[in-house]
Design goal:
Blueprint: H1 13-27, H2 39-46, H3 50-62, E1 66-69, E2 73-76, H4 81-105, H5 110-123
């Protein structure tokens, strides 16, 4: 897992870390019981404060994505299938919203959008 943080994104660094770890969990890159980098090592690798990585990990633990085991590190918890499905639905909705906005801007009808969706859905 490679995390990338940007000072120019306007999103707090701890949020960037959280979202990238969540995305790695949802995508399956990180699996149940995988050990995350230590807080200190992650801070050193990203050249950020230990306080920032601690906040990201604490938030992930509070949200039920990881568990901290004293003296051993932070591990990925088993994922709730409903939460994973909700995340997927959110991504689909965002993608379809972008498509609808583009279609309306290009004066493509709803029927044409459905036709495109059906073709693409069957092809993939």
């Amino acid at each position: 897992m490679k995390l990338i943080v940007s000072n120019r994104s306007g999103i707090p660094i701890y949020e960037q870390i959280k979202s990238q770890i969540k995305e790695a969990i949802f995508s399956g890159e990180l699996q149940e019981d995988d050990l995350l980098p230590s807080i200190r090592q992650l801070a050193k690798d990203l050249k950020i404060s230990v306080i920032t990585t601690t906040r990201a990990y604490n938030d992930l633990e509070a949200e039920g994505f990881i568990i901290s085991v004293q003296g051993k590190g932070c591990y990925v918890l088993p994922q709730n299938k409903e939460m994973t499905r909700e995340n997927t639905l959110r991504k689909v909705e965002a993608g379809l919203t972008d498509a609808i906005v583009a279609a309306k801007a290009g004066e493509i009808t709803k029927d044409e959008v459905f036709e495109i969706l059906n073709v693409l859905y069957e092809q993939n």
